[in-house]
């Protein structure tokens, strides 16, 4: 795999290139100290992934990633930065991962592995859209992989999202709006500004006073989950449940 490393600070770029060369999946490293050089190298072809700083003169890393998103075949992008507060914007642009400086070799290796897996899935022909997405959740230096198929509903938590599964909940640095778009074809529907639900688990809807609740299948002996439905989402939810029976979604 050929990787392009981009950073305007020479010591940081040298360190990133050094650590990437130590990864067995990386065959070649190309480097750029600004977005203009990076774009020239990308347009020359042969780049399989980009590891990209954010704060750079001229086009910054987020702006460069926005340009790459318009490529016919955008390369996977991993952001490498000292700033925690740009993660939401990075994942909105489709980032594969978001690494914080100073870099840890094991964390970089995990990012490379994700890129390799993403490229392998993209190169594997499939008659149907892949519905087996796995969401990496990092907590205390440990990365847990949560299959989308285990997610029952999603709750907005500021600029984060909390994934609720049968075994617990997981906080991820992805806005709920991004998951709404990415998971629409997999049977997830936004029912409220704070909630996204898996349609196969919906057992019904009920009216309480002037409000509407959506009911989800319980886990074992747990009580059913009931979530509020906003007025503007209520009609869409009812239409989807009537027009597309739950068996249709479970067959995806």
Automatic annotation (TrEMBL):
InterPro entries: CheY-like_superfamily (IPR011006), LytTR_DNA-bd_dom (IPR007492), Sig_transdc_resp-reg_receiver (IPR001789), WalR-like (IPR039420)
GO biological process, alphabetically ordered: regulation of DNA-templated transcription
Keywords assigned by UniProt, alphabetized: DNA-binding, Phosphoprotein
Keyword Protein biosynthesis part of the UniProt annotation: no
HTH LytTR-type domain location: 135-243
GO molecular function: phosphorelay response regulator activity; transcription cis-regulatory region binding
Any one GO CC term of the record: cytosol
One Pfam entry name: Response_reg
Domain Response regulatory positions: 2-116
PTM sites of type 4-aspartylphosphate: 53
Protein's name according to its UniProt entry: DNA-binding response regulator, LytR/AlgR family
């Amino acid at each position: 795999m050929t990787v392009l490393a981009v950073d305007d600070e020479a010591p940081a770029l040298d360190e990133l290139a050094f650590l990437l060369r130590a990864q067995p999946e990386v065959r070649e490293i190309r480097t750029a100290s600004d977005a203009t050089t990076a774009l020239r190298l990308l347009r020359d072809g042969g780049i399989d992934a980009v590891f990209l700083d954010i704060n750079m003169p001229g086009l910054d890393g987020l702006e460069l990633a926005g340009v790459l998103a318009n490529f016919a075949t955008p390369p996977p992008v991993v952001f490498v930065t000292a700033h925690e507060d740009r993660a939401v914007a990075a994942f909105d642009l489709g980032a594969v991962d978001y690494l914080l400086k100073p870099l840890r070799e094991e964390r970089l290796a995990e990012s490379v592995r994700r890129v390799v897996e993403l490229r392998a899935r993209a190169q594997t022909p499939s008659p149907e859209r892949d519905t087996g997405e796995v969401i990496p959740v990092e907590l205390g230096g440990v990365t847990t992989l949560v299959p989308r198929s285990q997610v029952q509903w999603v709750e907005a938590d500021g600029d984060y999202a909390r994934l609720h599964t049968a075994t617990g909940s997981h906080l991820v640095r992805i806005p709920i709006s991004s998951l709404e778009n990415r998971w629409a074809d997999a049977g997830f529907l936004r029912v409220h500004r704070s909630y996204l639900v898996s349609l196969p688990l919906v057992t019904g809807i009920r009216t309480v006073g002037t409000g509407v609740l959506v009911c989800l299948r319980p886990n074992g002996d747990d009580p059913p989950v009931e979530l509020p439905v906003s007025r503007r989402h209520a009609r869409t939810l009812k239409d989807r449940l009537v027009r597309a029976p739950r068996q249709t979604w479970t067959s995806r």
